[in-house]
Design a protein that fits this description.
With about 230 residues, the protein is α/β, with parallel strands linked by helices. It has helices at about 15-25, 35-45, 60-70, 85-95, 110-130, 160-170, 175-185, 190-205; strands spanning about 5-10, 30-35, 50-55, 80, 100-105, 130-135, 135-140, 145-150, 155, 215-220, 220-225. The protein contains eight helices and eleven strands.
């Protein structure tokens, strides 16, 4: 079973070690960064399911980091975990785009329950999405229907639909080959890898009608569905 990938951005070393170990004990796969700038770089290079972020950090504060993350992903669950307890700090946390604001000291069991509740809500929102729009494409996951503005349309196979949905969820970010295989085929081996290559080739063929969309193989890292900005008219 694939573990939930959690991004922890916390500059206090002792607390960071304790939090990382505690979250791992609760079956999360944790990436820990010690400053906001490194946290943003890591978020942009890897797919995550949830983020826990401190406020006061070197190089980039938590409020700014969350604002950057929200520009790229509106749906990922974000929690502040901080000693900043002033009312204005709490308000700034929610204004920046956080889903929850937890003040230290805190109950660790409550934290885990909050994380799982946010993940459940995020999953329900994702599964209820009936239409996804990217560039000049309209995609309806329940119907597996991909339509381009030119009128070209395709009915995707179940595996094509799962693959496209996962790449769209992490649009403009690299998703590792292992992550895709484990999520869709439930195993990562030579044969499932070859099978995925076939489906990727088909998806690229469907998308080639739009020059602003591409699925790129990032050598040694994974795949990225890129949407390029259209030139100003």
């Amino acid at each position: 079973m694939q573990k939930i990938k959690l991004l922890l951005v916390e500059d206090e070393k002792n607390f960071g070690v304790v939090m990382r170990d505690y979250l791992q004990m609760n079956d999360f796969e944790v990436t820990w960064c010690e400053d906001g700038l490194t946290g943003l770089s890591k978020f942009q290079s890897e797919p995550f399911h949830v983020c826990i972020i401190d406020v006061m950090m070197p190089k980039m504060d938590g409020f700014t980091l969350v604002q950057h993350i929200r520009k790229e992903n509106q749906n990922i669950p974000l929690l502040f975990l901080t000693a900043r307890a002033m009312r204005e700090d709490v308000l700034n946390g929610y204004r920046s785009g956080a889903d929850d604001y937890i003040i230290k000291p805190f109950d660790t069991e409550v934290l885990i329950l909050k994380i799982r509740a946010l993940l459940k809500h995020s999953l329900e929102q994702s599964s209820n999405a009936t239409v996804l729009i990217f560039s000049e494409f309209t995609y309806q996951p329940p119907l597996r229907q991909l339509l381009h503005a030119s009128g070209v349309q395709h009915k995707l196979s179940p595996k094509e639909a799962e693959l496209l949905s996962l790449l769209l969820k992490h649009k403009n970010r690299v998703v590792s080959k292992t992550t895709l295989l484990q999520a869709i085929w439930k195993e990562d081996n030579y044969f499932t890898g070859r099978s995925m290559d076939v489906y990727l080739t088909k998806l690229r063929k469907y998308l080639e009608v739009d020059p602003h969309i591409s699925i790129e193989n990032i050598h040694g890292n994974g795949y990225c569905l890129k949407q390029q900005a259209k030139p100003n008219a």
